[in-house]
C-alpha cells in the first residue's frame, strides 16, 4: 500500500522542486555547448550554483555569474500551484492524481557583458534567451519517445507518498507548457529591469 504522508519524510510538493533542479543541473553541459558555439561564450560557463530554488527580490553580484535560473512553485497565471483529482483505472482501483505547475525563471544581469556596447548586449541577450528556451524545452523536458508514443520526461522523486513501497513517486509528462520573455525589476543599485525568460513547467504524479 502507498505509504501516505509522513512528516519526517520529503513530501510531493517539496520533492518536485528538488527533482526539477537536479535535472536542470545534470543537463547544464548541453546548455554550455549551445552558449559556447560562437560569441555568446562571453557569458562564460553556467554552473550548478547558478541554479536555485526560490527567488529573491535583490540581485546578485555579476562577478558571480551572468545569470540565475530560479525555480518557484505556483506556475499558473493566477498562482495555482497544483490541482488534485481522483483517478480510476480499468480494474476499478482509484487513487489520487496531482498536476503541478512550476515557474522556472532565467534572469540575465544587465551588467553581465560590459565589454559589449548597448546594441550588442541587447542582441546577445536575445540569442541567449532563445538558446536557453530551446535547451530547456527541447533538450531537457519536452522529449518525445517514438516507440512508446509518449512525451515529457519521467522524474523519479525523493518522496514515497503515492507509489507502492519500496518504490518512489514519479513526476510524469514533465514538460515546458508555456514560455514568456520580458523584463522583471530587481533591486540592484536601485530598481533595475532584468531581462527575463519565464518558463512554466507542468507534471503529474499519480
3D architecture notes:
This protein is α+β, with helices and mostly antiparallel strands. The chain has one domain (12-205). 23% of the residues lie in helices and 35% in strands. It contains 3 helices and 9 strands. It has helices at 12-26, 28-35, 118-141, and strands at 51-53, 67-73, 82-88, 94-108, 144-145, 150-151, 153-156, 170-187, 191-205. The strands form 2 sheets. Strands 1, 2, 3, 4, 7, 8 and 9 form a 7-stranded mixed beta sheet that branches. Strands 5-6 form a two-stranded antiparallel sheet. The two termini are 14 Å apart. The model has no long low-confidence stretch (mean pLDDT 89).
Number of domains: 1
**Number of discrete helical segments:** 3
Low-confidence stretches: none
Q: Which range best describes the helical content: under 10%, 10-25%, 25-40%, 40-55%, 55-70% or over 70%?
A: 10-25%
**Termini, distance in Å?**
14 Å
Computed CA radius of gyration, to the nearest angstrom = 19 Å
Please describe the biggest sheet, giving its number of strands, its sense, and whether it closes into a barrel. 7 strands, mixed
Q: SSE order in H/E notation?
A: HHEEEEHEEEEE
Shape: elongated
Mean pLDDT across all residues, rounded? 89
Strand content: 35-45%
Number of strands: 9
Structural class: alpha+beta
Amino acid at each position: 500500500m502507498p505509504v501516505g504522508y509522513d512528516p519526517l519524510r520529503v513530501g510531493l510538493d517539496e520533492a518536485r522542486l528538488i527533482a526539477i533542479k537536479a535535472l536542470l543541473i545534470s543537463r547544464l553541459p548541453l546548455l554550455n555547448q549551445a552558449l559556447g558555439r560562437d560569441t555568446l561564450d562571453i557569458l562564460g560557463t553556467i554552473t550548478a550554483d547558478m541554479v536555485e530554488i526560490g527567488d529573491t527580490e535583490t540581485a546578485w553580484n555579476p562577478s558571480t555569474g551572468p545569470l540565475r535560473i530560479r525555480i518557484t512553485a505556483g506556475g499558473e497565471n493566477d498562482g495555482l500551484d497544483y490541482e488534485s483529482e481522483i483517478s480510476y483505472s480499468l480494474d476499478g482501483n482509484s487513487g489520487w492524481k496531482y498536476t503541478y505547475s512550476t515557474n522556472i525563471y532565467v534572469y540575465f544581469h544587465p551588467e553581465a557583458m560590459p565589454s559589449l556596447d548597448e546594441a550588442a548586449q541587447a542582441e546577445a541577450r536575445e540569442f541567449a534567451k532563445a538558446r536557453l528556451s530551446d535547451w530547456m524545452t527541447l533538450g531537457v523536458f519536452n522529449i518525445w519517445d517514438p516507440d512508446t508514443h509518449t512525451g515529457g520526461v519521467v522524474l523519479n522523486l525523493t518522496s514515497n507518498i503515492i507509489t507502492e513501497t519500496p518504490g518512489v513517486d514519479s513526476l510524469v509528462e514533465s514538460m515546458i507548457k508555456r514560455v514568456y520573455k520580458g523584463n522583471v525589476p530587481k533591486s540592484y543599485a536601485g530598481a533595475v529591469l532584468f531581462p527575463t525568460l519565464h518558463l512554466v513547467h507542468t507534471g503529474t504524479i499519480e
